[in-house]
Amino acid sequence: MSALMLNKSYFIETFKKIADMVEKNRDHLSKLDSDIGDGDHGINLTIGFREVEKQLPLLSDSTADIAELMKKVGMILLSKVGGASGPLYGSFFMKMANNTTGKQAVTFKEFCQMYQDGVEAVQMRGKAELNDKTMIDALIPGLKVLNNYKEGDDPIKTLEICVDEMKKGSDLTIPLVAKKGRSMRLGERAIGHRDAGSESAWMIMNEFLQQLKLEK
Ligand SMILES: [Mg+2]
Predict the structure, then answer these.
(1) What radius of gyration do the chain's Cα atoms show?
(2) Which of 75, 108, 183, 193 is in Cβ range 3.0-4.6 Å of 35 for a Cys bridge?
């Protein structure tokens, strides 16, 4: 297990999977957003990840390390994706680069650090707290799991639990009143609806998990 290394192509293959997933779930994600927002979440993510996918062959060759790949993907999302999700997911991937400069591959422990750096960036930019009915409600439960990872633990099992906890966190947004974003204006009418960003957050991390299962 400790020999597991995630190289640049792991991340590239994961981004391809995310692009497919977003395409397949475009209407689902937009529907969630239309219940309590402006209904563009699925469309926005599709636009962003289509562009990421288009540029992946070039990024695969032209990026020097994992840091550069993550920064470039984040920048594409920042520039192409509208709404709140562009800046948030853009920052998430850009800051995943923080501790990967010069690295061609990372250990799973380092991957956990990348996730933490990404989540901290989302928190800084979005200023959301737990229970504000945002993607943070999925990201934080996942972070707690990855922070507990120790050498010798099974990375796949750890990421499975992480995604599971993120899903549960997303479920917990359903009864909440929103404290951020457009749905904030709805007050109690937001109750009974899932936050779209919390849904896409666990779905994105699930693609990291699916690709990890192929790396063994
Ligand atoms: Mg929206």
Answers:
(1) 16
(2) 193
Cα of 1 from ligand 1 centre, angstroms? 40
Looking at this protein, which amino acid is placed at residue 67?
A
Ion ligand 1: residues, CB within 5 A, are 33, 37-38, 40-41, 83
- Alpha carbon 181 to chain centroid distance? 18
CA distance 203 to 199: 6
Query: Cα dist. 87→34, 50, 94, 138, 160 in Å?
Result: 20, 17, 10, 17, 27
As a whole number of angstroms, the distance between CA 100 and CA 31 comes to: 36
Q: Class of 6-215 per CATH? A: mainly alpha
CA 162-88-71 angle, to 5 degrees, is: 90
For ligand 1, the distance from its centroid to the CA atom of residue 41, given in whole angstroms, is: 5
The Å distance, Cα 82 to ligand 1 centre, comes to: 8
In angstroms, what is the span from residue 28 Cα to ligand 1's centroid? Answer: 13
Mean pLDDT of successive 10-residue stretches along the chain, which has 216 residues: 84 98 97 91 96 96 97 96 90 98 97 98 95 97 98 96 98 93 84 95 98 91
Please report, for residues 58, 99, 109, 121, 194, the alpha-carbon distance to residue 132 in angstroms, rounded to integers and kept in the order given: 38, 29, 29, 17, 12
SS3 label, residue 152:
coil
Helix, strand or coil, per DSSP, at residue 1: coil
Q: Return the structure tokens found at 57.
A: 């062959």
Q: What pLDDT sits at residue 216?
A: 66
Domain boundaries, given as residue ranges, for the chain: 6-215
